[in-house]
Amino acid sequence: MQQRIEDYALIGDEQTAALVGRDGSVDWLCLPRFDSGACFARLLGDEDNGHWRIAPRGADLCTRRAYRPGTLVLDTDWETDEGAVRVTDLMPQRDRAPDVVRIVEGLRGRVTVRSTLRIRFDYGSIVPWMRKADGHRIAVAGPDAAWLRSEPPVHTWGEDFATHAEFTVAAGQKVAFVLTWHPSHEPRPPLVDPFEALESSVADWQAWSDRCQYDGPHRDAVVRSLITLKALTYRPTGGVVAAATTSLPEELGGVRNWDYRFCWLRDSTLTLGALLAVGYLEEAAAWRDWLLRAVAGDPADLQIMYGVAGERRLPETEVPWLAGYGRSAPVRVGNDAVRQLQLDVYGEVMDSMSLARRAGLSHEPHGWALQAALVEWLRANWRQPDEGLWEVRGGRRHFVHSKVMVWVAADRAVRALEEHPELPGDLEGWRAMREEVHREVCAEGYDAERNTFTQYYGSRELDAALLLIPYVGFLPPDDPRVIGTVDAVRAELGRDGFLRRYSTRDSAVDGLPGDEGAFVACSFWLAQALHLTGRRAEARELFERLVSLTNDVGLLAEEYDPVSARQLGNFPQAFSHIGLVNAALALFGDEEAG
Fold first, then answer.
1. Contact 476, 470 (CB under 8 A)
2. SS3 of 20, please?
3. CA distance 221 to 547
4. How far is CA 481 from the centre of its chain?
5. Which of 22, 99, 233, 393 has its CA 20 to 30 A from that of 451?
6. pTM above 0.85?
7. Exposed (0-12), middle (13-18) or buried (19+): which is 172, by Cβ within 10 Å?
8. Cis peptide leading into residue 153 (ω within 30°)
9. How confident is the model at residue 593 (pLDDT cuts 50, 70, 90)?
10. What is the 3-state secondary structure (H, E, C) of 134-171?
């Protein structure tokens, strides 16, 4: 039986990540990067598509599990008739090669444990050639090689195109397994000591999480969200992927299955704000620097997303041999939305650079010239329709949120020149652009009869992104149009107290069949909007409900289905965790945050 999305926990080394289920099975792992082919793809298929399970013989799901406080080191415990055993999972920060370390420790009695390793490279499609050498089991196929060893050595054997081991641990005994990947044309990398790796990983993660300056309510949830954001960061470049997975469905059995293992510009301002607000200046600077490198070039070529190193070509293909999570097909690799025009990203880039400048991040000499070029391109092109931040596939429209973010781009450029008159730029021209955009949005994107802004010009539909209007400063929170919009969005897009992104009734806009769950980040935006508009008790009540959606180890997917009470979409989702951190700062920061 396939596990629920929330039955998984995350481990990673800040270059890739794995999902570990409550049954002790690693069901998703891409090597060597987040966006590489998966060698364990059971998550989107079945056991024959690759997995690695370590659990007591005959056991089903674990008794309990938890991260060690302030870390990404996972302890999974089983209570059996024979005794108790713990499996500790981690991916230590790599020197040359990625390692998955799994340490089995006897807690009580004598427990027989079984390991089943089934490697399938290229998203579960390639069965490698297995051999023995120097006490290792070695899997090789094409460009990939993986080495399995144990300390102390335990007997392994091959059966059903998998590598098995069975052994008994008494209280206090430990057996460690290490799986190491490297390019098959290169020699085996140096061996990692699994027990030293555990100690150093715990120390490093705890030292990092102790730097968090937030000390208000739900600090544990905020710290867990920040750890998750760091785990989704590609450390060599500073890019933050939207999620560790591809194609986890927004509707079970549906087709809304997308690859989120890339870096979206839409996340930039919210991520920077969260990192800066809680004291992680180094990580914020790395993300800012990734952003500047990624968007460098002709402003007309600005994309909504890039690869972890700034790659621009992310062609979308389907993987037909994987049935999909919960039979939700197709499974997609790559993302065609990269080719869409989304005018809001210009505002997000400008807002991010403004935020970094105000926070005192070191000045990048070429940064302002790039920003000025972006604003000049936008001045000539902002009147175009676009696909909007939700990447609809039903054609371009004049989305209100996109136009609001055009205003943000002009506003931040004007502020930069007002605060730093030595910078070159067309101050009066950008002021005029800012005023023109503002007038048009208020005239064309506002429904006076219903007292609400709308999804796009001339529409009666709404969009949760409208909740960001006071957040970005387009209108003050006490403006009657803002209050009316918050009320209308909550009434029309609410679902059992949570919030959808937009209505899927109009398939001409969405371009897709089916429905989706409540969007977690948008629900956090609603909590912030309620707080900004003076309804603080309601905001805190909603925040409490949203935090309760986290799974047993504090993780959130992209969406939540209140009917079936389960998480949906890619997992864990950076946007959801950014929403949690920023909402906590908004609701509690003035009173109780450090």
1. yes
2. strand
3. 7
4. 32
5. 393
6. yes
7. exposed
8. no
9. very low
10. CCEEEEEECCEEEEEEEECCCCEEEECCEEEEEEEEEC
Report whether 387 contacts 342 (CB < 8 A).
yes
Q: What pLDDT is attached to residue 594?
A: 32
The interaxial angle of helices 281-295 and 268-277, nearest 10 deg, is: 160
Task: Judge whether 540 and 231 are in contact, CB under 8 Å.
Answer: no
Q: Collect contacts of 431-437 with beta carbons under 8 A, ≥24 apart.
A: 433/379, 433/382, 434/407, 434/410, 437/382, 437/403, 437/406, 437/407, 437/410
DSSP 8-state symbol, 23? T
Q: What are the residues facing 176 on neighbouring strands? A: 103, 151
> Which amino acid is present at 542?
L
Tell me the mean pLDDT in the region 367-379: 94
Query: Taking the CB of residue 564, how many other CB atoms lie within 10 A of it?
Result: 11
φ, ψ of residue 153 in degrees (nearest 5)? -60, 140
Residue 8, Ramachandran bin (φ over 0: left; ψ between -120 and 50: alpha; else beta): beta
Residue reference for tokens 């069949």: 513
**pLDDT tens track for 193-240:** 999 999 999 999 999 999 999 999 999 999 999 999 999 999 999 999
Report pLDDT for 592: 44
Q: How far apart are CA 528 and CA 542, in angstroms?
A: 10
Which structure tokens are listed for 464?
């949760």
Which residue's entry shows tokens 């364990």? 40
In whole angstroms, what is the distance from residue 482 CA to residue 490 CA? 12
Q: Could you tell me if residue 107 is left (phi over 0), alpha (psi between -120 and 50 degrees) or otherwise beta?
A: alpha
Spatial CA neighbour of 349 closest among 399, 431, 410, 425: 410
CA distance 566 to 520: 12
Cα distances (angstroms) measured from residue 5 to each of 10, 123, 527, 582: 11, 18, 25, 24
C-alpha 432/C-alpha 407 separation (Å) is 11
d(CA 21, CA 6): 9
Q: Evaluate whether 462 touches 388 at the Cβ level (below 8 Å).
A: no
Q: One-letter amino acid identity for 14?
A: E
- CA-nearest of 325, 289, 284 to 7 is 325
What's at 335, amino acid-wise?
N
The answer to whether 371 and 293 are in contact (CB under 8 A) is no
Contact yes or no for 15/240 (Cβ under 8 A) = no
φ and ψ of 589, to 5 deg:
-65, -40
Q: How many CB atoms lie within 10 A of CB 180?
A: 23
Instruction: Determine the pLDDT at residue 1.
Output: 66
Q: In this structure, what token pair is assigned to residue 577?
A: 């965790």
